[in-house]
Design a protein that fits this description.
single chain, 244 residues, alpha/beta, 11 helices, 37% helix
Length: 244
């Protein structure tokens, strides 16, 4: 069974993985779903210094203190930036990187670089010294694919705006080659894939494990059973790679 660490995207928190984590645990996997600093139930810890580096440190600290190894490290959306940075700092603890409709950055790139459409939602407001964007409103709900019904009523109050600094900070990797050598799985939401910049799209299509799902961007909430099944496939893929 796999050791999953599930890293949420912008404006979310560990809470968004509840349905998927439940399914994975029933299948016998170990699951950790941390909330990044300044978001979710940790929103009170937000400061002007909160950055991509802060969030990378959140996850590396979890791996160290829980002594997690052979980790299937999963990132959703902005979480792809975070897991790539974590893999650079702790490659020996990572069995596989899994990008769920996530950013797939290279050294020196920011989220804005790999997801330029983010600039369309640049309603950035300065609050207590922090520039915040992706406010939990109708525009954000449309991005996430959760716009109505019981699910929307549960999700929307739990969303938070996200520190814009995280989106503009360039990811700096000490050893890009070591990160590139780690086994990698990619799960694309079809609608999102069609919006990827043409000159970058091959990143989301090239690899040994590439799957697609016809779901909105928040696939872990919209299609939790299908998402858990895909992650179970990722676990099997990771195990196979380890035994080669």
């Amino acid at each position: 069974m796999a050791n999953f660490v599930l890293v949420h995207g912008a404006g979310h928190g560990g809470w968004c993985w509840q349905p998927v984590a439940r399914q994975l645990r029933l299948a016998g996997h170990e699951v950790h779903a941390p909330t990044l600093t300044g978001l979710g139930e940790r929103r009170h810890l937000l400061t002007p210094e909160t950055s991509l580096d802060t969030h990378i440190e959140d996850v590396t600290a979890l791996l160290f203190h829980e002594d997690l190894r052979k980790v299937v490290l999963v990132g959703h959306s902005y979480g792809g930036m975070v897991i790539t940075g974590v893999a650079d700092r702790m490659p020996d603890r990572i069995a596989c990187l899994a990008y769920l409709d996530a950013a797939i950055p290279l050294d020196g790139e920011s989220l804005v670089d790999v997801s330029p459409g983010l600039q369309q939602y640049n309603d950035v407001r300065l609050v207590d010294g922090v520039n915040l964007g992706l406010w939990p409103d109708a525009a954000a709900a449309a991005i996430y694919g959760i716009t109505e019904g019981e699910l929307a009523r549960w999700v929307m109050p739990r969303l938070t705006p996200h520190p814009w600094r995280c989106f503009e900070q360039k990811l700096r990797l000490a050893d890009p080659g070591a990160v590139a050598r780690l086994p990698r799985a990619v799960v694309n939401c079809l609608a999102s894939l069609n919006l990827r910049p043409t000159h970058l799209r091959n990143r989301w299509l090239d690899g040994e494990f590439v799957r697609a799902i016809d779901a909105g961007h928040d696939l872990m909430l919209i299609e939790p059973e299908a998402t858990a099944a895909l992650l179970d496939e990722v676990a099997a893929f990771s195990a196979k790679k380890q035994h080669r």
